[in-house]
């Protein structure tokens, strides 16, 4: 059998995050999003040098903050410009589960003009999650019409 050019269980493009408190983050993602831990590698000091979890069939790789290597968490750098988009079968249920696990509501869950039901939460480690269920297929043309209507206040 030939070895693939892509790591087993990964996709062409994957997320790799740096977390202050990686072990605690893994526990949170298990509670909030039903993550399954695939494995972790520990550094001599006990911090996580690399870990992998799976959420809804997608791989998320992570490691503890390591300032010496230039790996800084959102808490250390004072914020984070990125968001995770997580599609689930029931956005309302998953949103509430994340909040119950300790996430903070950024945007309450609602139906959006582009056909998704979406709510945003911030996890305790500085990452924003858009929890989404797709409800309606909408063309870009129709999305633009709906967007224009929304921004015009109609």
TrEMBL record:
<dbReference type="Pfam" id="PF00903">
    <property type="entry name" value="Glyoxalase"/>
</dbReference>
<feature type="domain" description="VOC">
    <location>
        <begin position="9"/>
        <end position="134"/>
    </location>
</feature>
<protein>
    <submittedName>
        <fullName>VOC family protein</fullName>
    </submittedName>
</protein>
<dbReference type="InterPro" id="IPR037523">
    <property type="entry name" value="VOC_core"/>
</dbReference>
<dbReference type="InterPro" id="IPR029068">
    <property type="entry name" value="Glyas_Bleomycin-R_OHBP_Dase"/>
</dbReference>
<dbReference type="InterPro" id="IPR004360">
    <property type="entry name" value="Glyas_Fos-R_dOase_dom"/>
</dbReference>
